Amino acid sequence: MVKINFDGAWQKESLIGGLVVIVKQKRGDVMKAYMRKVSHIGESNVSKAKAALAVIESAKDMGFSDIIIEGAYALGRVNKLKCMNKDLSLLRTVIEEIAKCFQVCIFQFVYKDANRAAHSLARCAC
After folding, report:
1. What are the φ/ψ torsions at residue 2 (nearest 5 degrees)?
2. pTM of this prediction?
3. Would you call 15 helix, strand, or coil by DSSP?
């Protein structure tokens, strides 16, 4: 089982978002980390949803079967997507479908202080 932290950030003026994914072994050793700039982001929730999708895609590409996805927004992130605009509900559907590829896929809330590294890197990615 691996833990994956994620976060997304957004700059309103430029409509540019940043996302970060940090993959850790259960004992905390970092296996992989990356950040990416994303264009045409209309709101903060879109960057966070895209970050959640990037987490699942990364875990799938790395061949993991059991994952815990940790983020300050992880608990409600996928569920909140169903209440938002059409683009986000499409992302929600994609996230749920890809999550089915894992034997275990848990979205787990962590307080913002515990997710500080991911949050700081996401802001730098913008």
Report:
1. -120, 155
2. 0.72
3. coil
